[in-house]
């Protein structure tokens, strides 16, 4: 599993940089981010049953702290900065 996670990280990082450069310059960057994160949300929902939490979904959500929300702000700021 360790090797798989490394390979997944490397491939995803390469694809991230390639796809980021392919975003058309005349598209509103916030719309592009919105579509990106809607796609990411759908993918996470599809993959969730493959990595089911030890506790229920509601209990898992309750375990999330403020850092996950703050990370969301940081990621959007980072991505918007690159796209702008």
Report the span from N to C terminus.
37 Å
What is the count of helical runs? 4
DSSP strand tally:
0
Q: Which geometry do the CA atoms define?
A: globular
As a whole number of angstroms, the C-alpha radius of gyration is 15 Å
What fraction of residues sit in β-strands? under 5%
Helix content: over 70%
Q: Could you state the order of secondary-structure elements as H and E?
A: HHHH
Q: How many strands, which pairing sense, and closed or not: the largest β-sheet?
A: none
Uncertain regions: pLDDT < 50 for 5+ in a row?
A: none
User: How would you classify the helix and strand content by structural class?
Assistant: mainly alpha
Overall mean pLDDT stands at 89
Description:
The chain has 84 residues and is an all-alpha fold. Helix content is 76%, strand content 0%. The chain has four helices and no strands. It has helices at residues 2-22, 29-47, 57-62, 66-83. The longest helix has 21 residues, at 2-22. The chain is globular. The model has no long low-confidence stretch (mean pLDDT 89).
